[in-house]
Amino acid sequence: MHVQIVLFDGFDPLDVVAPFEVLHAGRTATGGAVSVEMVSAEGPREVTGGTGGLTLRATAALDPGRPGWVLVPGASGRIGEPGEEAGEDTVPVLLGRALTTPLPELMRAAMAHPEVMVATVCGGSALLAMAGLLEGRPATTHHLGMDLLDATGARAVDARVVDDGDLVSGAGVTSGLDLGLHLLDREIGPRVAHAVEELFAHERRGIVWRARGPEPVAF
């Protein structure tokens, strides 16, 4: 199981670091069956995150044809008030800048590849939706971005983690822990996921939403 975590200018550090640590622990727990790297659309480079300016290094270019997972984080910045002109440090502007890079086309290629699956944390799903890549797909994001997700063609689902087969999305920033654990559970098995969960002293929240079973009757 190989995971490429995408860095772009303005990324949210916790969206990246939380799943990275979970998956890296999964590597240890499996004796190397899990591998994870940080990549960017432009190739190896220093990439500066949003609020706080944490810089991480992408060690390779995003390879949309490499079997495994591609994980897209959201951006870190101000949300902005309704009617306020979007500033340079706001999340929509930071996500919009990412759309001007080669990232959207690389993600389009990744999502078209039968052996590549995509995961998102927080605003990562909004970024893909803004690029026109989630039309009609169930996904989740930060609670402040649910309207944006709906408006850009995705089907917003209010859940901690949404599993739609080759697309798995996590909600708010700390959901990166839950998403990473879900990927380990799904791809490797519950015993490894449970061991990592115990190591991190973290208890997964909520039910992973899937389009299975009967539709619930309205309460």
From TrEMBL:
Domain DJ-1/PfpI: residue ranges: 2-185
Record-linked SUPFAM superfamilies: Class I glutamine amidotransferase-like
InterPro entries the UniProt entry points to: Class_I_gatase-like, DJ-1/PfpI, INH-QAR
Domain of life: Bacteria
Descriptive protein name: Transcriptional regulator GlxA family with amidase domain
Organism: Streptomyces griseoviridis
